[in-house]
Amino acid sequence: MLKREIILTPGGYRKLVEELRFLVTKRRKEVAKRIRDAITFGDLNENSEYDDAKNEQAFIEGRIMQINEILSRARVIEDKHIKTDRVTLGSVVTLRDLESGEEVEYLMVGSIEADPDNHKISNESPVGRAIMGKKAGQVVKVHAPQGYIKYEIVNIRKAN
Question: Shortest CA distance to 61 belongs to which of 31, 41, 38, 40?
Answer without folding.
Answer: 31
